User: What shape does this take?
Amino acid sequence: PPRSTLFPYTTLFRSFGIAGESFENPMYLDKLVETLGADPIKAYDKKVQCCGGALAFSEPEKSQEMIKGIIESAYDSAADMIVTPCPVCQMNVEVYQDQINARSGTKFSMPVVYYSQLMDVAFGRSAKDAALDQQIIKAKPLEEIANK
Assistant: This one.
């Protein structure tokens, strides 16, 4: 796809076992995103911030505060969407935006996609094949590329 969309990401997945990766600033997903034709935001300050998935049911306010920080950072970085290799982050950061908006008076609508969806589009698959039609918050920039 053309380099028209910025993709920062957040993840619970730390770079354990990846030779030469920094735990504080892993670059493997930045490199993958760039190879697929997108522009990663390398200075994204919540790159390895946990979404609080383990707290989602026991302490939802704490989890949602963590998610809010991730989304605010994405907006502050002028991101169009968040790409993650963590299915828990993908779900939590996307699903709880409405509740965060209601609680905080924000108007978040940040698409969050799993990295394999980005790969599907880069490899020429349709938006439906990439399961973009299943997103709660539509990843419109990615859908537009997939539908070309």
Remarks:
- The CA atoms of residues 24 and 38 lie 22 Å apart.
- Residues 1-15 have pLDDT under 50 and may be disordered.
